Amino acid sequence: MSWDSTEMAFTVLYDACVLYPSTLRDLLIRIAQAGLVQAKWTQQILDEMFEAIRENRPDIAAEKLDRTRALMIRAVRDCLITGHEPLIEGIKLPDLDDRHVLAAAIRARAQVIVTNNLKDFPTGSLSGWDIEAKSADDFVLDQIYLNEKVVWACVQQIADSWKNPPGAVEDVLASLERNGLLQSVAELRAV
To answer: How far apart are CA 36 and CA 38, in angstroms?
Structure first.
């Protein structure tokens, strides 16, 4: 009998709002690539993310956004969730437009939905599914506590990837801080 490491992986669903800021998206993807979690999302979550980018950054060429989408899907093995659509109608959430996110998390058997819209995912609506909503800051902080060296390496990789202009670790931390990772950045600066 063979064992597939993805069977036992800690599974998380990334909501569009945490995938939108590029530095945060890069960190969350690198955390998944490092094997700390199995990250999941849907085409609809990506649609929401890219729609927000197009709305706020019309200067970014459509081809570049299409390339980013393709790279995201290739970057994390088995990241796309499908088959969750039949669950949507039976889900009760404060914002009906977020039901697809919980449906995808249920289908993926995710333990956590990483979102900065915590009010839209109240504990009472998630507890029956054994799913918890966490802010990006709390989620990254958990990853730091589990393996600070791996998260620090992810931050260093991001800095190393910045070429135009070149970046340093402090630049990445400052960007993450602007993205709301206040506790996580403070912890990383203490490493």
So the answer is: 7
Phi first, then psi, for residue 39 (nearest 5°) are -85, 145
Asked if 151 and 143 count as a contact pair (C-beta separation under 8 A), the reply is yes
Q: Are 139 and 147 in contact (CB under 8 A)?
A: no
In this prediction, residue 26 carries a pLDDT of: 97
Residue with structure tokens 């063979």? 2
Output the pLDDT for position 8: 55
Q: pLDDT tens, 111-130?
A: 999 999 999 999 999 999 99
In which residue are the tokens 């914002």 written? 95
E-strand ranges in 41-169 read: 112-114, 132-134
Q: Judge whether 58 and 81 are in contact, CB under 8 Å.
A: no
Residues of the chain with pLDDT under 50: 1-7
Tally of CB atoms within 10 A around 147: 14
Q: Cα Rg for the chain, rounded, in angstroms?
A: 16
Taking residue 159's Cβ as centre, other Cβ atoms within 10 Å add up to 17
Name 71's Cβ contacts closer than 8 Å, sequence gap at least 6.
none
pLDDT value of residue 2:
40
* 46 C-beta neighbours (distance < 10 Å), count: 19
Q: Which two tokens stand for residue 166?
A: 């070149």
Tokens of 77: 């093995």
Q: How far apart are CA 101 and CA 49, in angstroms?
A: 13
At 166 the pLDDT is: 87
